[in-house]
Structure prediction request, 413 residues.
Amino acid sequence: MNHLLRCPVCGKTFPDHGELACPDGHHGLLRSIYPEKQLAIRNEPGIFRYADWLPVQQVPRTQSSPVTFRSLGFAKEVGLSNLWIGFTGYAPYKGAYVPTCSFKELEAWPTVQRLKETGVGTLVVASAGNTGRAFAEVAGVMNQQILLVVPKRGLERIWTSAPAENVTLIAMDGDYSDAIAIADKICDLPGYTPEGGARNVARRDGMGTVFLDAAVTIGKIPDHYVQGVGSGTGAIAAWEAALRLIADGRFGETLPRLHLAQNLPFIPLVSAWQARRRTIIPEIDMPHAEEAIRAVNADVLTNRRPPYAVPGGLFDALSACGGRMYGITNAAAESAGLLFEETEGIDPDPAAAVACAALLAAVDRGNIGEDACVLLNITGGGYKAVPQKHHVVPVETIRPGELPASIPEKSHV
Ligand SMILES: *Cc1c(COP(=O)(O)O)cnc(C)c1O
Ligand SMILES: [Zn+2]
Prediction:
């Protein structure tokens, strides 16, 4: 039996033909409904161990997967007795072999596979860096044509572990939100398919495997979940994974509390949630956005249009789980990241360093008790250990609002 999709607005369920939205046009995040209520772990080396709860029929072979391990060193520094790390990145001695070093690769694998099963055309991806790198890698391995739109600031992050194939890269002035706007326009052209971001169930369920892997490794749903968030998609995915685990019956009955962090001074989600407001008001929640975004170290956390208010989105996740949001300075993130590297031996992505600082703040403020079972999502890291980085070279550079003069057929590497 195949999985179905359900609209959170009208409740209608229907078979998955690659939809990103309800056929009746409702504004809400579709959710996948899997026939297997109990998770059976498959004999696969990577993420597709969890294919029961991924929206794909076929299972491509990859070693890429989240890993979960108990923290000793960092836990001691933070003052926790039961801290678990969910890590996606490159650290062979931990069994972690994600060459592009972030949990965006967990999104890319099922997204590309789902597109192959349900859609056609060139996949269009807008990225601040990590998503583009992940999709470039997976597109090469899976023989899927993709078009990446990346702000110049993120260009140095677009590399692959083998020379890139099937990838066309366009660089642009402006930030991540400008890249999304250009990608949207390109998707109006025939032959181009949007990857859909948070609206794509494959992206969310792919990210949700971090939470599944943690619950399976720990033996239960953790009490607290800590992550650095830009769009909040990873946190929505953790909530959805927890709901499935509760329905499974073997992992506990309580949703985890969400402790989510953004990098000061750009913290729209923190600001809106602290006011318990469902909508983000740009003047209040992200004043001087461009300047604020430029001042942030972890720029993968700077999304100006996150899926927060949308039904089934981050506001609903925080409301269901109970949640706290933290604004973290560059300095606090840097020192927490260094502490993590010293104690766990993995260099964290700047966004993961923000999560490390949030965990320190949460314990400090008494939001997390010292014996609570805590999952810290180290969403990226291990860059220093990656053996080879082949940089992908842009075929064109454009300004915000422009369309590329010609969209080239073939990749330039
Ligand atoms: C994208 C990203 C995040 C933020 O994830 P969201 O789902 O957008 O909130 C955190 N850490 C890393 C390393 C990322 O690449
Ligand atoms: Zn609907």
